[in-house]
Design a protein that fits this description.
about 300 residues; alpha/beta; Rossmann fold; eight-stranded mixed beta sheet; about 20% strand
Amino acid sequence: MFPDFLPKLTESLTESTSISFAQNIEYKSIYTPLISEQINTTFLSEGQGDTPILLLHGFDSSIFEFRRLLPLLATQYQTWTVDLLGFGFTDRLPNLKVNPGAIATHLYSFWKTLIDQPVILVGASMGGAAAIDFTLTYPEVVKKLVLIDSAGLKNNPIISKFIFPPLDYFATEFLRRPQVRENISRSAYFDKSFATLDANICARLHLEMPGWNQALISFTKSGGYGNFKQKLDLIQQQTLILWGENDKILGTGDAAKLEKAIANSQLIWIPNCGHVPHLEKSQVTANYILDFITDN
C-alpha cells in the first residue's frame, strides 16, 4: 500500500489526503559531487505544464508539509517536492556532513537529474532560507521565487545552544517526544483544529528514519542558514512573500523586512492563519501562487 522505504508508522495515517500523498512518494538515486555514493532522494511529482514548480519544506520536516498544497498546484502545473539533504526520508549517509552548502549541491543535482529547466521555487519556513540560498547560488535555475513565512533574517536556531555532547543527543531526543511534536504542531496553526492526530503523525514520520539524530545535529552544528540580510538585494527574480497574520513560530516582523530587502517583491498577508499557510489555508495559498506564476 505504501512505499517500503517509509516507516511502519505510515500505516497509522487516517486522512485521505495524507494516505494518497504517502502512496505516491518515490525515490531516485542521485549522483552528487558530495560523495561517491548515490543518495536515495525522496520526492513527489504530479501534474503537467511548461513551467515546473518546486516546493521546499521547513526545518526538521519533510515533503508531507505539502500534502494539501501540491495537488492544488498540480491542477495547472507540474509540481515537485523533494526531501532536502539530511531531512525527511532522503538517505542520511553517516560520512556526509549536512550544511547549507551540501543541501544546495544535492538539490541542484536532484534538479539537474529530474527537472533540468527553470522552476518556480517555493520555500516554507527554513525551506524559504534554503530557497533564498539556492536562488543566490544558482540564479539561472530559478524563474520566480515564493517565500512562505520564510526564515533567513535570523541567526542560528535556538536548539544550536544545546548541540554539544552529550546534550546534542538529549536535545534531539527531546524533539522526538510525541507531546513535544504535538505542541509544536499546535503552535504552528491559528486554527488548532488542524492539529489532528493525522497531522501529528505526518509531522513525525521522518523521525523514524535511520540517522535522524545525527543529521539534525550535523546541520545545527553547521550554523544553519543564518541571516541573508546583506545578500537579499542580489535577488533579481520576481518574488512573492506570503505570510500568516498570526504566525507564532517566526512572528510577523520579518515579512516587511523581506519585502523591503528584495527589490522585485510583493508581500501578501493571509488572515486567520499561523506559520503554515500551505497547510492551514492551502487553497488560498495555491491561488496566490498560481496568480503569481501567470502574472508577467
